[in-house]
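## retry 2 of 3
previous attempt timed out at serialization; input unchanged, resubmitting
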Amino acid sequence: MKQKVYITRKLPEQIVNGLRQNFDVTMWEDEAIPVPREVLEKEIVEVDGLFCMLTEQIDESLIEKATKLKIIANMAVGYNNIDLQSATDKGIMVTNTPGVLTETTADLTFALLLATARRLIEATDYLKNGQWKSWSPMQLTGQDVHGATLGIIGLGRIGKALAKRAKGFDMNLVYYNRSRKYEEEKELGIEFVSLEELLKVSDFVCVMVPLTSQTSYMIGAEQLALMKETSILINTARGDIVDEQALYQALVNREIWAAGLDVFEKEPVPLNHPLLALPNVVTLPHIGSASIATRLKMAGLAAENLMAGLAGAIPDNLVNSEITSMLKEKG
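## retry succeeded, writing output
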C-alpha cells in the first residue's frame, strides 16, 4: 500500500504527477483559497506526509491529530507557521526550501526599494487619475538610490544577494547580523555595525532576518526614531518583525520618509489597514519569490524533501536536525 500524502494547495501537474507515481496523493483543489482548517484537521489524521504552504498554521493541536505523519514539507524558506517543537517531540521531520528563491527575492527587494524611493506607484496613479497637467521642478521628486547608504539587517543568502545588486548602484553598504561575516565583508566591501548605528546612518534599511522569538517586533518605535527623516524602510522578510502601528506613526509624523512592504503581520492584509492609506507606502501581496521559474523550483524542492523523508532518508533541507539521531535509531 502506498504512503499517503496531502497537499494543502493546488500545484502544477508536473509537480503533482511526480508525487502520484510514488504516493497516494490528495490535494486541496484550489490555487487561490487556502485549505479550510476543518479540512486540514481531517486530512492530517491518516497521512504519512504533509506538503504545506506558509499560509497554513501547523500548530500543536493539528500535529497532535496526526497518527502516522513522518514529514512536513513546507514550500517556503521560513517555517514560523509550523510548531517546530511539537513536530520534533513527535519525531516528525520538518523541511524548507532555501537557496532556490534567493536571487528572485533579492530582485524583488531591490525593485521595491527603487519603486519606493522614486515614488513609482504614486506617479503611475498620478498619471492615470489625470493629475499630470504640466511638468514642474519638484513634481513627484523622490530619493536617490545611487551613492546612498544601504543598511541590511540580516546578511544571509538573500541579504548577500541584495548587497551585490546594491554595489551596481555604487551604494555604501553596512550590515547588522547576529555574528560577523568576515568573508562577506571582504567580498562585498560591506561594514559590520551595531543595529543602532545601522539605523542612524542608513538611507535605506532592508529587513532580511527570519522571524523568531528574538526578531519579533525587532523594529519598533524606538528603532524607527533612530532613523533619518529622509530614510526608507523596506521589509520583504516577515511582517511580524516590524511593529506596524509604530511604523504608521513614524510615517505620519514624518520621522521617516517612506516604507516598502511585501509582508504584513496579518496576511492577506485587511483593506482598512491604516498603512494602505498612506501615499508614501508601497505595498505588495507577499510576492518576493513570485517568478514562474522560482515557484516551480520551490515546489520541486519541497517534493524532493517529502520523497526523501518518506523513503526513510534524511532530507537535505531538514530544519529540526536534532531529531536525526532519533530517526536513525528507528531506521
